[in-house]
Specification:
The protein contains 13 helices and 2 strands, in the order ααααβααααααααβα. The protein has 369 residues and is mostly helical. The chain has a single domain, classed as NCX, central ion-binding region (A middle domain of Talin 1), CATH 1.20.1420. A two-stranded antiparallel sheet has the order 1-2. α3 runs parallel beside α7 and α9 packs antiparallel against α10. The longest helix has 35 residues. It is a multi-pass membrane protein. It comes from Nocardioides taihuensis.
C-alpha cells in the first residue's frame, strides 16, 4: 500500500469510465477519448495485479492463485457477453475464440515465460509434478468436453451443442472445477506449494513462514486492497466495453480476421496473470506461476462456459463452441508438449522456449489462418 498510484488509479479509472460511457464525440475528440480510455484501462489492469497480489499474499498459497483466476474470469465473461450483445457482425464464435485463446496464452504463453524466467534465473525451474499434473489433466478434460466435442456431435448442425448437451457440459465443467479447487485447497494443498529451487520435487514444499519474503499484509491492508481490486475490475470491464468498438475497428483496419478480437480480449484479461506469474518465477516460485497459468486456463473454461450456457437463454443466435481443424491441431500439440514438460517436475529453458514457439504459431495462424 506504500505505492500511492495503486490507490489513486482505481477510482480515477472508474471516473474515466463514468465520463466516457455512451459518448461518441467524433473526429479528434473521439481519438483523444479512445487514447485516454486505453491508458486508464492499462492502469486499471496493472492496479488489479497489485491488489490481487496483496490479497493473495495475505491468504497464502494456493488460495492466492485462485484470487487472480476468478478475477480474470469475471472480466472475461463480462467482455464476451457485452461484445456478443453489442458487437457488430457474427459473434457466435466469439466465446469459443476467446476461451481457446485464453487456454493457449495460459498453457503456452504464461507457462512458457514462467519456465524460461525460472530456468534462466536458477538453471532449472522446479515444481511439483503431482499438483501441476492434476491441474493440467483438468484443463485437458475441460478443453476436450467443451471445445472439441461440439465439433463432432450430431444433434445440432454445425459446431454447437444442443440445449441438453450444453447443460451437461456446463454441469460437468463446474463439477471438474469444484473437484480441483477442493483438491488444491483442502485435500492435497501441499501439492500446490512452491518447492525448493535446485532440490527434488519429492523434498516437499517450501516453508512459507521462512521464504525470505516480506511479512503478509495486515487484515486492514488486505481488505483495502480487496476493495480497490473490485473497483479496478469494474473499471476494467467497463473501459474495455467502451474501448471494444475501437478494438474491432483496429482489427478490421489491420486486415485481420474478426476472430482475432477474441485473441485481443484474452491478451487483455490475462495481462494481470502474466505479470504476477513472471514475478513469481523470478523469485524461484515457479509452482505459484504454474498455479496461476493452469488455474486461469481452467477457470476460463470451467467457469466461463457454464456462465455463457446460462446467458445463452437470453442471447440471440447460436453459441458455436467447436474448434476448427487448425485449432484442434494446436491444442493437441499443446497437450503433448505440456504433459512432457510436467512429468519430470523440473524444466530447462528449452521447455519454456517450446511453449512460447507454440504460442507464436497460434498468434500467427490467428492472423493468417
Amino acid at each position: 500500500m506504500s505505492q500511492r498510484w495503486t490507490v489513486v488509479l482505481p477510482p480515477v479509472a472508474l471516473l474515466v469510465l463514468l465520463l466516457s460511457w455512451g459518448r461518441h464525440p467524433g473526429g479528434v475528440a473521439e481519438a483523444l477519448l479512445v487514447t485516454v480510455v486505453a491508458v486508464a484501462l492499462v492502469g486499471a489492469v496493472l492496479t488489479a495485479v497489485h491488489h490481487a497480489e496483496v490479497v493473495a499474499h495475505r491468504v497464502g498459497e494456493p488460495f492466492g492463485s485462485l484470487v487472480l483466476a476468478v478475477a480474470v474470469t469475471v472480466i472475461e465473461v463480462a467482455l464476451i457477453v457485452t461484445l456478443m450483445v453489442s458487437g457488430k457482425g457474427d459473434t457466435s464464435t466469439l466465446a469459443r475464440d476467446t476461451v481457446f485463446a485464453a487456454v493457449m496464452i495460459s498453457v503456452n504463453g504464461i507457462v512458457g515465460l514462467s519456465l524460461l524466467v525460472g530456468a534462466l534465473k536458477r538453471n532449472l525451474a522446479v515444481f511439483n509434478p503431482e499438483g501441476t499434473g492434476a491441474a493440467l489433466a483438468t484443463v485437458i478434460a475441460l478443453a476436450g468436453l467443451c471445445l472439441v466435442l461440439p465439433r463432432f456431435t450430431t444433434s445440432e448442425p454445425g459446431p454447437v451443442f444442443s440445449p441438453g448437451q450444453l447443460a451437461f457440459a456446463a454441469i460437468a465443467s463446474l463439477t471438474l472445477y469444484g473437484l480441483f479447487v477442493f483438491t488444491q485447497t483442502v485435500r492435497h494443498r501441499d501439492f500446490f506449494l512452491p518447492v525448493e529451487a535446485g532440490a527434488d520435487a519429492d523434498h516437499g514444499p517450501v516453508d512459507e513462514d521462512d521464504d525470505g519474503h516480506a511479512d503478509p499484509p495486515t487484515d486492514r491492508a488486505a481488505l483495502i486492497s480487496l476493495g480497490l481490486l473490485l473497483v479496478a475490475l469494474v473499471a476494467v470491464v467497463g473501459l474495455a466495453k467502451v474501448e471494444s468498438p475501437a478494438i474491432e475497428d483496429g482489427v478490421d483496419a489491420l486486415g485481420f480476421p474478426q476472430s482475432f478480437v477474441g485473441v485481443v480480449i484474452a491478451l487483455l484479461v490475462l495481462l494481470p496473470e502474466s505479470i504476477a506469474a513472471v514475478r513469481a518465477a523470478s523469485r524461484a516460485r515457479v509452482q505459484t506461476s504454474l498455479n496461476l497459468a493452469l488455474g486461469s486456463a481452467m477457470a476460463s473454461i470451467g467457469l466461463t462456459i457454464p456462465t455463457l450456457a446460462l446467458a445463452s437463454i437470453w442471447l440471440d443466435g447460436p453459441l458455436a463452441l467447436g474448434l476448427g481443424t487448425v485449432q484442434m491441431v494446436l491444442l493437441l500439440l499443446t497437450v503433448l508438449v505440456a504433459v512432457l514438460t510436467v512429468v519430470p517436475g523440473r524444466a530447462k529453458p528449452l521447455q519454456g522456449g517450446v511453449h512460447l514457439v507454440l504460442l507464436s504459431a497460434f498468434v500467427f495462424l490467428s492472423i493468417s489462418p
